[in-house]
């Protein structure tokens, strides 16, 4: 092709057709520029196609993670609510000081309330991989990027009362140690390796009275209930964030179909 153009130029110059040569030269430059622009356009189009495919893969990975995060937070909210309800019932027992009130449930209230502790472990693998690889810029939605950053920040910050929560848990374990296995039935005792015992109602009543009049229990139990309630609020908020992110991700995927 270049040889063909060169022959035309040489013929025009040899024939003394300078004006036609100049017009031809300008036309040739225009053609070259157009060729370059077309090549750039095709190259950019190819790169955009590659980037869009990469974005779709990223969005699908995020979608998978946040479907799981919704499940994780939904489950832990149920568990956390269960802990709080048991703590409240145990507080009611301590305040009533009635040996017959919820007597058969007392050990369950202790184990599933005072002694219970849950912590959510959300999935952030896809987002952390994006940060590490620098591919976060591939995501077009600034709203999605902002939500992901906020979600990650909340997780990294952690629960502000974590230390207090663990201290209260340890305190309650210590204060309830005298009654910890007293009300367990023999089936459960054997499951955890304890010997069978004959039920001694009088001894149980004595220990319950001691428990109900122990001044070191009600305050940490009430504080634990408050702390666990704050944790529940955090988990509810994180579930909302997870749902918002998932909605944004699925909306982006729908647009790219």
Automatic annotation (TrEMBL):
<feature type="transmembrane region" description="Helical">
    <location>
        <begin position="21"/>
        <end position="42"/>
    </location>
</feature>
<dbReference type="InterPro" id="IPR045749">
    <property type="entry name" value="DUF6090"/>
</dbReference>
<dbReference type="Pfam" id="PF19578">
    <property type="entry name" value="DUF6090"/>
</dbReference>
<keyword id="KW-0812">Transmembrane</keyword>
<protein>
    <submittedName>
        <fullName>DUF6090 family protein</fullName>
    </submittedName>
</protein>
<keyword id="KW-1133">Transmembrane helix</keyword>
<keyword id="KW-0472">Membrane</keyword>
């Amino acid at each position: 092709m270049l040889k063909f153009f060169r022959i035309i130029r040489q013929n025009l110059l040899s024939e003394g057709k300078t004006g036609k040569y100049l017009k031809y030269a300008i036309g040739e430059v225009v053609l070259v520029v157009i060729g370059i622009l077309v090549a750039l356009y095709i190259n950019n189009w190819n790169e955009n196609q590659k980037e869009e495919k990469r974005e779709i893969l990223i969005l699908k990975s995020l979608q998978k993670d946040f479907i799981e995060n919704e499940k994780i937070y939904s489950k832990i909210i149920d568990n956390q609510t269960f802990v709080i309800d048991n703590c409240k019932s145990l507080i009611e027992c301590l305040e009533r000081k009635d040996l017959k009130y919820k007597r058969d449930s007392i050990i369950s209230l202790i184990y599933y309330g005072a002694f219970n502790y849950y912590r959510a472990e959300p999935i952030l693998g896809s987002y952390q991989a994006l940060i590490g690889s620098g591919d976060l810029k591939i995501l077009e939605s600034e709203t999605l990027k902002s939500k992901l950053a906020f979600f990650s920040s909340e997780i990294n910050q952690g629960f502000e009362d974590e230390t207090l929560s663990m201290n209260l848990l340890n305190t309650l374990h210590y204060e309830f140690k005298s009654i910890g296995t007293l009300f367990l039935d023999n089936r459960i005792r054997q499951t955890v390796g304890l010997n069978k015992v004959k039920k001694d109602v009088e001894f149980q009543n004595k220990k319950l009275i001691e428990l109900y009049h122990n001044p070191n229990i009600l305050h940490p139990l009430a504080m634990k209930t408050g702390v666990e309630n704050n944790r529940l609020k955090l988990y509810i908020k994180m579930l909302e964030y997870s749902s918002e992110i998932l909605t944004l991700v699925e909306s982006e995927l729908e647009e790219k179909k």
